[in-house]
Specification:
The complex is a heterodimer.
Chain A lengths: L1 H26 L11 H34 L21 H39 L19
Helix pairs in contact in A: 1-2
Chain B lengths: L2 H28 L9 H46 L1
Helix pairs in contact in B: 1-2
């Protein structure tokens, strides 16, 4: 994101340099007003004008890149777009509700996976403990079995 | 690379070459004779050209540095996400 700001600032300075080049022959008085243009005036003016135009185009490009990046990160929203998290009107199409449900699912999926893995590991370690004590025939299937998941 | 960024970089490179042109123009066009005192026009062109070269070079350098940093961060995040998934 910073790269676009740097580019835009560089392009702005380039545009200012172009504007200065167009004015310099008259500001520094090496071109008399009304007289035919001398070689330095031609060079400065015809370098300054394209530089100004090109730098302005570059600045627009960098700023549009910055806007795209900000939108991608969710910092900036599209104008006239519907604000996120707006309550759904009754009788509205199901598509959006389904989308938010999927989002919730995506958010919860890693948590559920981690919980499942944890429970499976706990079951496995309990099984190993049972195998190590074969004489202990009478196992009380009490609290330990609670919430066990076998895979 | 985003098309906007590519266009912006091309513009910056054009600005860099415009600076080189300004720096050399007094001698190429011939309104500054070698060995004589510099005229106001020559001084203006040299200073403006030099500043333009410096600005564009610095912009390109910093842009490249920050683009590399962003790419490194993106790769790091992707690796972390891959590890979490597997």
């Amino acid at each position: 994101m910073v790269k676009y700001v740097i580019g835009a600032v560089g392009a702005l300075l380039g545009a200012l340099a172009g504007a200065w080049l167009m004015l310099a022959p008259f500001a520094l008085a090496y071109q008399d007003s009304g007289a035919n243009w001398a070689d330095p005036t031609y060079v400065d003016f015809w370098t300054g004008l394209p530089l100004l135009v090109v730098s302005l185009v570059g600045m627009i490009l960098y700023v549009s890149g910055l806007v795209v990046e900000l939108r991608r990160r969710g910092i900036m929203r599209r104008p006239y777009s519907e604000p996120a998290g707006q309550p759904q009107a009754p009788g509205a199409p199901e598509g959006k509700a389904q989308g938010s449900e999927n989002n919730l699912e995506q958010i919860l999926l890693p948590l559920v996976t981690a919980m499942l893995k944890d429970m499976q590991e706990r079951d496995r370690s309990r099984d190993e403990a049972h195998q190590e004590t074969p004489n202990n025939v009478q196992q009380v299937p009490g609290k330990g079995e609670e919430g066990s998941v076998r895979s | 690379m985003a098309p906007q960024a590519r266009g912006g970089l091309i513009v910056t490179v054009v600005g860099f070459f415009a600076g080189i042109w300004l720096f050399l123009a007094p001698f190429i066009v011939g309104y500054q004779k070698v060995g004589q005192d510099w005229t106001d026009a020559t001084k203006n062109d040299l200073w403006t050209g030099g500043a333009l070269i410096a600005i564009c070079a610095l912009t390109l350098l910093l842009y490249a540095a920050f683009a590399l940093r962003d790419a490194a961060r993106a790769a790091e995040q992707k690796n972390t996400a891959d590890v979490e998934e597997s």
